[in-house]
Give the backbone structure.
Amino acid sequence: MPDSRSKRAILLVLILCSGAGVWGSQPRGKRQTQQHIVQPSLPVGQNKQGCYDNGQHYQINQQWERIYLGNTLVCTCYGGSRGFNCESKPEPEETCFDKYTGITYRVGETYERPKDSMIWDCTCIGAGRGRISCTIANRCHEGGQSYKIGDTWRRPHETGGYMLECVCLGNGKGEWTCKPVAERCYDNTAGTSYVVGEVWEKPYQGWMMVDCTCLGEGSGRITCTSRNRCNDQDTKTSYRIGDTWSKKDNRGNLLQCICTGNGRGEWKCERHSSLQATGIGSASATITDVRTALYQPQPQPAPFGHCVTDSGMVYILGMQWLKAQGSQHMLCTCLGNGISCQETAVTQTYGGNSNGEPCVFPFTYNGRTFYSCTSEGRHDGNIWCSTTSNFDQDKSYSFCTEQNVLVQTRGGNSNGALCHFPFLYNNRNYTDCTSEGRRDNMKWCGTTSNYDVDQKFGFCPMAAHEEICTTNEGVMYRVGDQWDKQHDMGHMMRCTCVGNGRGEWTCIAYSQLRDQCIVDGITYDVNQTFHKRHEEGHMLNCTCFGQGRGRWKCDPVDQCQDSESQTFYQIGDSWEKHAHGVRYQCYCYGRGIGEWHCQPLNTGSPGHPVQVIITDVPIQPDSHPIQWIVPESSHISNYILRWKPKNSGVQWKEARIPGYLNSYTISGLKPGVLYEGQLISVQHYGQREITRFEFTTSSTTAISSSRVAGETTALPSVVSISESVTEITANSFVVSWVSASDTVSGFRVEYELSEDGDEPKYFDLPNTVNSVSIPNLLPGRNYIIKVYQISEEGEQNLILSTTQTTAPDAPPDHLVENVDDTSILVSWSRPEAPITGYRIVYTPSLEGSSTELNLPESATSVTLSDLMPGVQYNISIYAVEENQESTPIFIQQKTTGVPIADEIHPPQHLQFLEVASDKITIMWSPPDSAVIGYRVEVIPVNRPGEHGQRLPVSRYTFAEVTELSPGTTYLFKIYAIGQNTESEPLTGEQTTKLDGPTNLRLVSETPSTALVTWKPPRARIAGYQLTVQPITDGHPKQYTVGPSATKYLLRNLQPGSDYTMSLVAVKGNQKSNPEKGTFTTLQSTGSVPPYNTEVTEASIVVTWIPAPRLGFKLGVRPSQGGEAPREVISESGSIVISGLTPGVEYIYSINVIKDGQERTTPIVKTVVTPPSPPTNLHLDSNPDTGILTVSWEKSTTPDITGYRITTVPTNGQEGYTLEEQVQAEDTSCIFENLSPGVEYNVSVYTLKDNQESLPISETITQGKLKNEQ
């Protein structure tokens, strides 16, 4: 029988064979889910507790991995009879590694990724490849910031000088929109502030009421008016539109009055006298005698809920329409019981590619017609408009400050009322003009909210290029199209669609289309253009029209004529001229109006920093534009422009102009007169500088009116006419007409007063004239005008019959009768013209709120009350007749007394809107008191020797402060400024962001090391955080780097691996934006398996993944000798050689051992161990002197070069950050100027050449000096 040892050997073989059979029975391609291995008896001489596998010993409960048939198993040691058990390693959960964030995410997880100064929304998709999907469609990126949908933020407008409030819309395209932040106005009388656009009422002179509106305009401007109030001086009561009241006239008759408004504060009164009569068989009856007491009543009473205008137009409740009142454009609304009118605001434009040219409405864009400014096609929310009727063709646009939709209809049944958006048609709401329901494609709109009920509509105006003409036969043509048509008399005509906004078309007989023109002996064909010199010397641009009689016509070529030398210049010509000892360079621009500018060639004296530019526009004899150039360094708050005829004794006229403008057009001038002017520049701090200049208005016979015409034959008249009356003044107006016939010898213009008994007067004019100015008329009177064309046989044919009322004349004999501290009494005489009332507007000359009063025609004086003492006011008085106004009386008067130095409250609610490393944007709310501007001071905190900034005085409630230092705390002070005083400051502190390191790159790479370098930030920082992570798998490692370092050597990297690195500057709780990069280590040479090397101040460690029959041999020796070489061989996965000297250069070699033999050429490298830090750090603070003494014991590292000592405030506290370097022999350092009460982290580093040790650190709180306690 075999012995017991043989039995045990046989049993072992059976067990192993059984195990092999179990493994081999698994199907191919299927992964083993579980393995169980029973440990055999321990070999002789091995009695350790645990398990043995593949020659390795494992402790109980220890786990390890083994490879079987290409699968990874995880084995657990149980010991004893259970041996160890192996199971298939579970499949790892799929993840995605983002190299930009350095973080691994699970499939389905969403996160934010900062990239390219934007925030991306990313999702881990996986898909077997760790795929990541990112989008910015649901983010808005503006001003270097990223916002989610619904987020709001504020920012200054690029050029408009006001704040915008923006909201992120997303819309899958990262869209956002912005609108101006509502400015506020402060009413001193009411003691309340209001937002822009808000309307409120306030009493005036005790019993009158005016409606006030906050306009803002950057200075909190308020305007008040009584145009929609009826202020009856007889009852001393103010009434709203629609209110009724009773009163008695001078004879004791009872009057019943109603307030109609009409934009002029009008009311209507009727007198009632009731008589009782008695008759047989009849009841008593009341007979009412209705007579007009004040203001003419309408010929017929308006239906209930309707409004009837002075011209007889009827509008229904809710309709709006535009009307002119003097130079103002009014927006009127039918209230049912009266009419309310407000002055309309012209849409202001700026920028674009048209330099702020005005809008042209309507215009087409992408095939759509727009009647107002729009944000269509833009992602930044700015609203814009086209400056031509066809943006698709011309691509010319400007930006708008507001969106004002006022579409005035033509035709229809609404008397030109405005479109009402939205309006209901066929139970559908429309927000734009439509052609629905029409076969001719004409666009229309409802003029009330419900067309289905009211059936009120009008046609929308069309852009010039989309307008159509519809013939009597229903055929439609676009503007410019031509077609043939037979006249009723039988001859053929060529017709052309001209549009004119009304779909007009004209026709010309064939006989007038085929001929030639003979001028100065030269023959020209029809439509051929040629030049001809006028007898006055300038060139004319001529065209041959033919029209069956050789008809030709000439207009001046656009050129410039010097107003002094009378010399003509072509567009592009330049010339020099001298005026008052100053040499000017002039340039002809033309621009269709013969415009030319001159600019001084000399720089001017320092006392005249503003240069006035001479501009001539010959076609405007009664006005003149003035432009000026402002030096960039000036801080001008406003201008005072004054002018008068030169060498005359009349008073200066003047205008106040805001400081942000650089041009102004003076109107109301006399033609052909030399004027002298002064431009007074008012600085923010009160200084004034004067620039004097002269200009000459052009004569009434301007170049553009020098026309020449000729003819050779004559044919009968065929075409229609059009007419107009323009340039209406109190004593004249201009009548213009266009006759389509050229078979006349002249024209007769007759005019007469519409009153009975006036004799008609007339002008006989040649056939070359198509307009005439009628002078010496009576103001405020209605004239009948008739224009006749006279044939060659002397027959008169009436081509125009119209009426026109001249404007009222200005109130004469004005006189300032009484002035005190708070009121001014002004009187005047009644003007010659019949009028319906007066309009008085007054406002402080410097700046302030304007007030408007509407008085009845019986008034001849007004007391302006609630004024401020010692303030000069501009007062304008207009005579009003229906929709016309006279030229104003202009008065400047200063109240008595001393200006009140009101207490100015400080601004409120300081907000920091945008904080960057070099810029901070702030915003605040205005105080509850009137101010003229704000002053901002910015002072760095705890930065001795650094000066702050003082921004120029501005009226805006925000400021952008630039050129700041990164990582610095600043104190902001905002002062409100009044007339002669300023408030206490509104204060707040804010710290700029840290700027990050830049130019992050790798200088050299090896299989296991990489040297990282960077450019340091401008901010004073406490250090850096360097994060390195393998892209495929692995955990990030963080390294703390000193603030003075600009490079760092990364060690123990995997050969041939991809890494991400991120470097951030750190100061307290602040971190800069990371500077990121990626790199790949070099592949290891030969067949050396991957390994890591780590060098500390006293050891060298080599680690690798253990494998069967694989080991390493590590040899270390100092390069300079002095120590015995050491050598270690191991297969355990790591080798440690310790006891090295810090700061010493060593040479180490690595050999690979396979099956006990060296298989590769040794890898030899040189390394320097880091220096050791100093020891026994001691801190001593002296409260008497405020000095901190830092001492330590020397580092054990030989041949060091010195020490670096830093003091950094902990936990983000504000205080001085100081750093010192001392020699190697020093063991102490003294610090002064530390901030009292601030806890500091004090660290000492050992330096040796370019190496730095780990720090030894302690914290201490610097106490206050005894004399400060």
Observations:
- The domain at 998-1080 is CATH 2.60.40.10 (Immunoglobulin-like).
- Residues 4-24 form the longest helix (21 residues).
- The chain has a mean pLDDT of 77.
